[in-house]
Amino acid sequence: MTQDELKALVGQAALAYVQPGQWVGVGTGSTVNHFITALAGIKAQIPGAVSSSVASTQRLRAAGIAVREADEVDSLPVYIDGADEIDGQGCMIKGGGAALTREKIVADLAARFVCIADVSKRVAVLGGFPLPVEVIALAVPQLQRRFAAIGGRAVLRAGVLTDNGHPILDVHGLRIGDPAAMEAELNQWPGVVTVGLFARHRASVCLLGTPTGVQTIDFG
Ligand code: 5RP
Question: What pLDDT is attached to residue 220?
């Protein structure tokens, strides 16, 4: 199976976590795009979706699914999103699609985070995928110096501004053995808007697409 077929598999499997009659939180990316396609098939069962990006909002609306923004709901039973990497505790690197800030906001509303990912995303230690960090433009040089001091090479993502109008630094060379500690530390650095580490908002469940089918990993 191709990577895209594995993504389609978990996008379909995630329907099992959508609660009839309830709004569902929807992430961003190519795996989530498959989920949105599947969700369109059961759209009559839900009032709609809370979106994490302009791109997902457009795709949801094109599929005939009503959309609300994060500031229009108080809570959600479930948030469904992809990841760039996921470790054995359900901690993730996210933000490859530049939607990390709104993704974290919607995830924060949700009782459960269901991660959908193909098997290539499963790692022992986070950091092989460059860590995305949304930042205030004025802080870029100082943040690059700070990352260099901890062994990271922070590269400005060329030609990209987030939906919030900010640049992204992709930080190469970090080995993230303690994601919660690193997320807490980086959150203190002036100019950091959002760190693409999801440790406080780790996955409750991961639906991992493998060549032999969907593996469900429950992180409790
Ligand atoms: C977007 C994200 C995505 O979930 C992540 O990049 C995975 O994307 P894909 O499903 O395309 O592999 O965090 O900001």
Answer: 84
Average pLDDT value for residue range 153-157: 98
> Which pTM was predicted?
0.97
- Structural domain boundaries enclosing 141: 131-190
Please state the atom number of ligand 1 nearest to the C-alpha of residue 99. 14
The per-residue b/e assignment along 86-124, b for 16 or more CB within 10 angstroms, e otherwise, is bbeebbbbbbbbbbbbbbbbbbebbeebbbbbbeebbbe
Output the residue whose Cα is nearest ligand 1's atom 8: 29
Q: How far is the CA of 91 from the centre of ligand 1 (A)?
A: 14
Contact residues of ligand 1, CB 6 A cut-off: 27-31, 81-84, 94-100, 103
Residue 71 forms part of a structural domain: yes
Cβ–Cβ under 8 Å, residues 133 and 192 = yes
- 36-71, pLDDT tens digit by residue? 999 999 999 999 999 999 999 999 999 999 999 999
Residue 165 belongs to domain with CATH number = 3.30.70.260
85 catalytic per annotation: no
